[in-house]
Recover the amino acids of this structure.
């Protein structure tokens, strides 16, 4: 939970606050004994945008705390009288120098240990080049595959980027096929059904290797071999192991 924000005096009349529970099941409130003003500690609202620019995603490295030096999408606190969308557009202009068009809502992210609710939109740049603006050390356009996941500023940054990427790549049909094969594999394995296994495992290995999920393909091959002793699966296992080694080499 959040710690005490340290407010001591009523902002309306200057008297000292006292802590009172006004309703059962609600937290204690800061109440002014003189003018009866209640200071409700509601969340602050921030609005931001995951911006597409030339096929990449625009992120900035924060210059100030919290989380100085870490990457985040443009965004900031919403002013009263401003809509969430206007705030996202304004902050993006201030922080990375881009005019954007809002495409849709990615999500609203809230956490028990944070006083900020972050609302994030998917957007695209209308033109121009990203420039380093207010409160940023660096601005860069990242290829989706190159997002610095271990150097993101906030949990909401990760959630927003994940939401953006799943919007870009809705679940492919091949994953449904994979699920079906995994189910068939579980049934064959549980029943120790060698014939069903001989049908399911080669297909499963093929789907996994096409997705370059070699480690899982190899595990499936080894499991299939133990069940069926099928020479086709043995051959597939060899091929997958070879591809795995090749992929490792390419990475070095
Ligand atoms: Zn007061």
């Amino acid at each position: 939970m959040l710690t005490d924000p340290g407010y001591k005096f009523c902002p309306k009349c200057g008297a000292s606050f006292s802590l009172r529970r006004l309703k059962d099941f609600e937290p204690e409130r800061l109440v002014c004994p003189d003018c009866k003003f209640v200071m409700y500690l509601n969340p602050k609202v921030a609005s931001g945008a995951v911006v597409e620019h030339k096929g990449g995603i625009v992120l900035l490295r924060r210059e100030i705390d919290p989380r100085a030096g870490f990457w985040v999408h443009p965004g900031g606190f919403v002013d009263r009288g401003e809509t969430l969308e206007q705030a996202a557009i304004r902050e993006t202009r201030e922080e990375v120098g881009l005019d954007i068009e809002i495409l849709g809502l990615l999500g609203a992210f809230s956490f028990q240990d944070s006083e900020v609710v972050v609302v994030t939109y998917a957007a695209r740049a209308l033109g121009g080049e990203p420039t380093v603006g207010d409160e940023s050390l660096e601005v860069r356009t990242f290829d989706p595959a190159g997002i610095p996941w271990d150097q993101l500023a906030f949990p909401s940054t990760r959630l927003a980027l994940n939401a953006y990427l799943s919007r870009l790549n809705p679940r492919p049909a091949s994953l449904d096929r994979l699920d079906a094969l995994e189910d068939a594999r579980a049934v064959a394995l549980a029943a120790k059904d060698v014939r069903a296994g001989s049908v399911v495992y080669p297909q499963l290995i093929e789907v996994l290797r096409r997705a370059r999920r070699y480690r899982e393909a190899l595990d499936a091959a080894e499991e299939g071999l133990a069940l069926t002793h099928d020479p086709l699966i043995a051959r597939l296992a060899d091929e997958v192991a070879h591809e795995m080694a090749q992929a490792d080499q390419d990475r070095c």
